[in-house]
Design brief:
- By secondary structure, this protein is of the alpha+beta class.
- Helix content is 45%, strand content 23%.
- It contains eleven helices and 17 strands.
- The strands form three sheets. Strands 1, 2, 3, 4, 5, 6 and 7 form a seven-stranded antiparallel sheet that branches. A five-stranded antiparallel sheet has the order 8-17-16-13-14. Strands 9-10-11-12-15 form a five-stranded antiparallel sheet, with helices on one face.
- Strand 1 and strand 2 form a beta hairpin.
- Helix 1 packs across helix 5, helix 3 runs antiparallel to helix 6 and helix 7 crosses helix 8.
Length: 510
């Protein structure tokens, strides 16, 4: 009877403790996944530690220490092999650095299923690992879009359950010889008050923390053992968590403010570029169309066209070094200076020399800009132009094919003061087409890293040489998109087409 009581006591304690430890390890995995930025997994894996990485690692160390986990780690399962890429992990010996693999993963099928977003029946599970026999559970790390980018795995040593159960049963064995019934009652009370009730309370509070319902410390149960230390560590962790969430809310609000301001800047920049086509409804001899697509919210490319006089049309395209807000601000200055100089009656050479010196006066950021400017005499067809380090435009004479305009590129604008530029001339007669672009077109990359190239641009232009300017620009952009596929746009893309219409040609599609 005594042996039966001892065995029954051990099994009962083991089952209760095992269930609670399963809840703890599952909740630890879920809680830890909330501190990992799912959008930065690739960055962590490639670049290693940064401030966000260090903050997440500190929170994982706190969770591992608080709950006495054997191992708490972030992985990305490899569907081709029975292992996983280790992002980082924490065990009793400290933190591990990112990179490499976690080795053979005992619970690989369960981890892969969780990574694919499947529900795991019977989770948590018991497996044999490098840390011995452990109870393990997984929780997905999600990006802002909701996709799973990694897994958090939490392991707790199974021998802790056995040890705790044996410890409690030992108390029964020590008192059973005196008075077995009283001893059983006392031991069960001790088990409940000193272990089960605190663990149940901690597990319940942990569930509220995971769900975000309660981020406040709870009253510490003075058990006088390791559980009391665990409660104290838990309260400390909750306090840190609350501060972290408050800081995260401030950071998110700041990011949202910046995003809103960038949207406004994008709208302002788009409004500065001519966007109404046809731009000169009364000038039937002209067909013009253009587009500019920045690589970021705002860009450093610009184009412009305007009538300097009744019979003189200026066309401009420019590309500022760099991308983003600095390049966009510099672009505004460049566009304004060039238009002011041309409107004052300066030739392209004189305009670029004046603009270059003005830009050099206060160019502490050491930015520069490539630019092409031309003045077309609408009566004679004479096209006077200057190339300041820019890509040579394409030109097509009536009835012919596109070829690159012969020009001698001068030095870029804002490089050095007192640079000299040279006017060059050609003719744009009825039926001729001028196609201007920035290097974001020819240097666009495919998914394999191949450049679009000048040869592909020339071929695309000749494939649509009989189209209107609008159709030509759209067709080139479409072929560029097909070439790039899913590759990220690395640079601003700008295209401008100018056609001199022949007598009787209408404006359809302009």
């Amino acid at each position: 009877m005594t042996l039966a009581i001892i065995v029954e006591s051990y099994l009962n304690n083991e089952n209760i403790l095992a269930e609670e430890y399963r809840k703890v390890v599952a909740n630890c995995a879920k809680m830890a996944s909330g501190f990992i930025d799912g959008d930065k997994i690739d960055e962590y894996q490639q670049n290693g530690a940064d401030e966000s990485y260090a903050e997440s690692l500190r929170m994982l160390e706190r969770i591992q220490m608080t709950y006495g986990l054997a191992y708490l780690y972030v992985i990305r399962p490899d569907s081709d092999q029975n292992n996983a890429d280790l992002i980082f992990g924490v065990d009793s010996e400290g933190a591990t650095e990112p990179g490499g693999t976690s080795g053979e993963l005992p619970a690989y099928e369960f981890a892969l299923a969780a990574y694919m977003g499947e529900e795991i029946e019977g989770e948590p599970i018991v497996v044999s690992s490098n840390h011995g026999l452990v109870v393990t559970a997984f929780a997905p790390v999600r990006s802002k879009s909701g996709s799973i980018t990694a897994l958090v795995g939490a392991d707790i040593a199974a021998d802790q359950i056995v040890f705790a159960a044996l410890s409690q049963t030992g108390q029964v064995m020590a008192t059973i010889a005196i008075f077995i019934t009283v001893a059983l009652v006392i031991i069960m009370l001790i088990i409940y008050r000193q272990i089960l009730r605190p663990i149940l309370k901690l597990s319940n509070h942990l569930q509220h923390v995971v769900s975000g319902d309660n981020l406040h410390e709870f009253e510490i149960m003075r058990t006088g053992n390791e559980l009391q230390t665990m409660f104290e560590n838990f309260n400390s962790m909750v306090g840190d968590m609350r501060l972290y969430i408050e800081k995260l809310a401030i950071t998110s609000a700041e990011r949202e403010r910046i995003a809103t301001e960038l949207d406004v800047a994008k709208t302002i920049q788009s409004g500065m570029l001519p966007s109404i086509f046809p731009p000169f409804p009364d000038r039937k001899e002209l067909d013009i169309h253009a587009l500019m697509i920045p690589a970021k919210e705002v860009g450093g490319d610009c184009y412009d066209f305007f009538l300097v006089s009744e019979n003189s049309l200026a066309v401009v395209i420019a590309d500022v070094s760099g991308k983003g807000v600095p390049a966009a601000l510099f672009m505004v200055i460049v566009k304004t200076l060039i238009k002011n100089a041309a409107s004052a009656g300066m030739s392209p050479k004189e305009a670029f020399e004046s603009v270059n010196n003005t830009l050099c006066e206060s160019n502490e950021a050491m930015m520069f800009v490539t630019a092409f400017m031309g003045l077309l005499d609408l009566d004679s067809g004479q096209f006077k132009y200057v190339n300041a380090g820019h890509n040579s435009p394409l030109i097509m004479n009536a009835g012919g094919s596109f070829s690159y305009l012969k020009s001698k590129p001068s030095f870029v604008l804002a490089g050095f003061e007192d640079m000299k530029y040279t006017n060059e001339t050609t003719e744009l007669l009825p039926g001729d087409v001028l196609l201007m672009y920035t290097d974001g077109v020819t240097e666009a990359m495919s998914e394999s890293g191949e450049l679009y190239s000048e040869e592909r641009l020339l071929s695309a232009a000749n494939s649509h040489k009989d189209c209107s300017c609008a159709e030509l620009v759209v067709a080139i952009k479409r072929e560029l998109d097909i070439f790039a596929g899913q590759a990220e746009q690395a640079d601003d893309i700008t295209i401008l087409a100018l056609r001199i219409r022949t007598a009787g040609e209408n404006s359809a599609g302009a």
